[in-house]
Specification:
By secondary structure, the protein is mostly helical. It is 64% helix and 0% strand. The chain has helices at residues 10-30, 35-43, 56-59, 68-79, 81-96. Helix 1 (10-30) runs antiparallel to helix 2. The protein is elongated and about 70 Å long.
Length: 97
């Protein structure tokens, strides 16, 4: 569909939209772990980002596809990490003694 459809065909444009979202989100997601690779991917995208970010690190996180319920679930899933971090800090202090 990407290569055989007309340039303005809905199927082709929808495929390009999905590939664009995947490329941007993948580059943003891997940036903390693989910063040079993520920046290289970002600099070689064949278009200018709609937010005009010159770097993957200036782009921020994508909020596409997140509704209020999904955001609540994500916040609830990350709420327990504060407890894990405090326990880790206590364990590290005890190990230092």
């Amino acid at each position: 569909r990407l290569y055989i459809s007309a340039p303005d065909d809905f199927r082709r444009r929808s495929c390009q939209t999905v590939l664009r979202a995947l490329a941007e989100d993948m580059a943003s997601s891997m940036a903390p772990l693989l910063p040079h690779l993520a920046e290289d991917v970002w600099q070689n995208l064949p278009y200018v980002d709609e937010r005009g970010a010159e770097s993957v690190f200036l782009n921020g996180w994508s909020a596409s596809g997140l509704d209020a319920e999904s955001l609540e679930k994500a916040n609830a899933a990350t709420a327990g990490w504060g407890l894990v971090r405090s326990v880790r800090d206590d364990v590290n202090k005890a190990l230092e003694l």
